[in-house]
Amino acid sequence: MKLLEKKVSVELGNRDFLKEKRKKTFREMKRNYQIYILLIPVILYFLVFKYGPMYGAVIAFLDYKPAKGILGSDWVGFKNFITFFKDPYFFRIMRNTLIISFASILVTMPCTILFAVLINEIANTKFKRLVQTVTYLPHFISLIVICGMVTEFCSMDGIITSFFVAFGMERQNLLQNPDFYRAIHIGSQLWQGLGWGTIIYLSALSSIDQEQYEAASIDGAGRFAKMRYITLPCLIPTITIMLIMDLGRVMNVGYQKNILLANTLTLQTAEVIDSYIYRTGLASSYPRFSYSTAVGLFKSLVNVTLVVSANKFSRKVQGSGLW
Amino acid sequence: MKKTFLKRLLSLAVASTMLAGCMTGCGQEANNDVTTESKVESAATESTVESTVVPEEPVELTMWAKFSSTELKDMGEMEFLQIMEENANVDITYAHPSADAINEQFSLKVAGNNWEDMVMYDWSKYPGGTTQAINDGIIIDIAPYMEEYAPNFAAYLEANPDIAKQIINEEGQIYGFPCIGEPSSAVTAGYSVRKDWLDKLNMNAPETISDWEAMLTAFKQQMGATKPFTLTQTYLFKTNFFAGAWGIATTYYLDNGVVKYGYAEPAAKDFVATMADWYQKGLIDNECFGSSDKIGRANVLSNDSGAIFGFVASCIGTIMDSAKEANPELDMVAVQYPVLNEGETNLYIRRTAEVRTEGTVCITSKCKEIEAAMRYLDQFYSEEGIIAKNFGVEGLTYEMVNGEPVYTDLILNNPDGLSISDALTRYTQASSPSVGIIDGRYYEQYYVMEQQKDAFILWNENSAEAVSFLYPTAAVTTPEEAEELTSIVTPLETYVYEEVAKFITGDRSMDDWDNFVTQMKSMNLSRAIEIKQAAYDRYVGK
Predict the structure, then answer these.
(1) In chain B, which residues touch A (CB < 8 A)?
(2) Which of A72, A306, B12, B495 could bond A68 through an S-S bridge, CB–CB 3.0 to 4.6 Å?
(3) Could you tell me the pTM of the whole model?
(4) Considering the domain B189-350+466-541, what is its CATH architecture?
């Protein structure tokens, strides 16, 4: 009986507490109403441009006929998803997407971090600026131009081919060999994004307290010891955030590079989800709107799952995450 | 402290201005590239046509059409179209898709269901075909208005029942105003080789497959060609007319009214084996998978290649033109589509149907002024309209000489330095697939070089018989069939092209061919053929 009373009182207390809290929030909103008015355009922006269009995603569950419109088309449930899972190329597309994505994270991330740390170590400011500017530049070159350069360099008598021929490779067009496609894809991505990717790490590095380094020097720590015991641990939160964000993009390899560099011979290692959606959804003469929307939706679902679980994992293990 | 803050504020301001600048820049560019919409002053400037009594304001219409000239902002600036518009008392606002992405942009229009009054496109590509487009309420059936508003087009169809059959469907509906060419000009592409090399080697133009092999080998060994036969991957296995020597086509074709798929026929093995042999001997360009028509032409000009597939104008014409400076010795000669044994004829050639579906203008259900649109489009089938489409404006782009239209120097020797084909797209619609009838007389003047004239005559020799193998584009599937066909054909074609590519490069041994055929057949090929056959039977049955 006493226990029950206690429970009731706690619940009542809780309710009061919630009421109190709501009141507080309301009062706070009233006091700072100007700020909330400023917020309205942002909320509207998200509703109109981000959440509004999501309505269109329902066509993934329809047998969408443009002439009938979304409301007039028939519901088919998960038929489009099942068709995709049963597609003879489903496993190939998934495998390529995941391999290219993960390999790209595995290669790009350590390179970028290492490069940022190295830039940070440069003492001469002028030289440091020069290195930064030079390595940022490729980021601004259009992807089409990059792919044109790659095609040229990897052709039969291209500069990259000739380099490998000097080490005993048989002379061939590198872009026609399925074994090389992923390396070329990731390599060109690394070349283009290396400098640009360091920006966020450099800003994290600049916020490290210099006194730590001074103290370490007094204790007799050398350059590598300082890197190992001060720089890297201070970078861990940034690295975690970047990793979680990358995981949210695992299924987005992008179709542009694929369409510009892949050909019939390399499709077996090159075709990814994005290029598949493009080919079946828009470029084909019989566009399959519902089907490609379903594939896209599936892709987003995987991305969201990955990012949420990575975040949870990071909070458990490390105590901090993206949110 | 205050100073730093000011500095920061200033840099932020500069950065945002730059961003804003970028965005407006992008906006403008998009406008120019993708959908240049501009208004055409219908009060055309100095046209010589005496103004017929114009009782009212011109009717406003909109039109979506591919436009490839880079000289003009949009079609409304073309002189002969301004006159056509004035005659029909209409004022057309144009929207142009970017030429490279026309399929995607049409798909987006379908998905968004937003249409101009008139849309020029290959409407046979609409999911389910033209009849379905009418049934879906996208375009209107113009048959009921024909007699009244389109007398010229109606008269033309009456006089040409064969062509009418490709335009009028089973229910008597007519979907639109197509582009029509003459049978004698149905083949504008084929194989051509280096004449100067043949002369040096004392060889004749190749006829048979073994002639070809001997010639390519000689090119490689004696003329130093690194890639004797330059091809793109499309012409290597998607539409390779060498297959015709073995009596098959690489796509769907008709054999006495029976639909067949080339790679599933027994003869395909020999054909692919020959291609593989040539590829592995280095006779076919080993970089063809990433090649393009442009690279191919460059290969010929730089003496890397001696044989190529291409069009009379864009291949032979362009190569000969550039060769004047780059490689004066170079001379091209067109050769007949190859055969297996001397005396045979290759009938599986690149022949277009009389009705060139890609230039069809359909009137959409959004159009409120059907009469005005019909009257405007009908002009392109009148005698004056045909001459205007092909030759442009009298006194400007052509003169009448002995009752025949002859291009002026504005086209043939353009003062602004345009090539003939660029000048033709700038001033006329003779060479761009578009509504109306292609006048055969234009070819005689368009193909100025002897080599081009010879090529055109040679390639068209067998065009009349070749038509019986052509799967007609007018044979349409029902929407259900179309959906099923797509779900079969998309993975099937991916499989076939990838495997054939492997056979050709030697990644897969020819001994494995039978497994390939079994696998291909297990991917529901027979059902795809059945659907195609049914569509064809319905087409001929009417």
Answers:
(1) 103-104, 107-108, 110-113, 125, 127, 136-138, 233, 237, 286-287, 289-290, 479, 482-483, 485-487, 490-491, 494-495, 497-498, 501-502, 505, 523
(2) A72
(3) 0.80
(4) 3-Layer(aba) Sandwich (3.40)
